[in-house]
């Protein structure tokens, strides 16, 4: 299991892929509130690098901080990867701090405490800085 914002296995290369095709991730910070909250457990499927669409909730790594494994929402593609941001603009370390990210997995759903699909993204006015 991958736990929190750091991975317990060393990344291979500058930005490592997920260790298995399916992993469980435990959310540890408030950056994606209200969509996911600290303590939520998410089911994540590994994806080929560069395959993410705007609005998707993903697991990503920042080339500048490859030891971090973060859950964020894709805003748009950029030449170096994807611009990702948390749904909580007041408590998120994301592309605004670390630059473009490399998407390594797509969040399929929440396993615990409220199993099911994730809710739709918050309205754009709530995401504005």
Automatic annotation (TrEMBL):
Keyword Hydrolase: yes
SUPFAM superfamilies in alphabetical order: LexA/Signal peptidase
Recorded GO CC terms: endomembrane system
GO biological process, one term: signal peptide processing
Keywords: Hydrolase, Membrane, Protease
Major localization class: membrane
One Pfam family here: Peptidase_S24
Name this polypeptide is given: Nickel-type superoxide dismutase maturation protease
Organism: Blastococcus xanthinilyticus
């Amino acid at each position: 299991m991958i736990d929190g914002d750091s991975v317990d296995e060393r990344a291979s290369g500058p930005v490592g892929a997920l260790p298995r095709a399916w992993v469980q991730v435990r959310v540890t910070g408030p950056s994606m509130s209200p969509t996911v909250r600290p303590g939520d457990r998410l089911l994540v499927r590994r994806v080929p690098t560069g395959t993410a669409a705007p609005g998707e909730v993903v697991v990503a790594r920042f080339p500048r901080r490859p030891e971090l494994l973060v859950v964020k929402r894709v805003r748009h593609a950029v030449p170096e990867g994807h611009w990702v941001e948390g749904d909580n603009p007041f408590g998120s370390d994301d592309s605004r701090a670390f630059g473009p990210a490399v998407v390594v997995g797509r969040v399929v759903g929440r396993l615990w405490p409220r199993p099911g699909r994730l809710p739709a993204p918050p309205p754009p006015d709530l995401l504005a800085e």
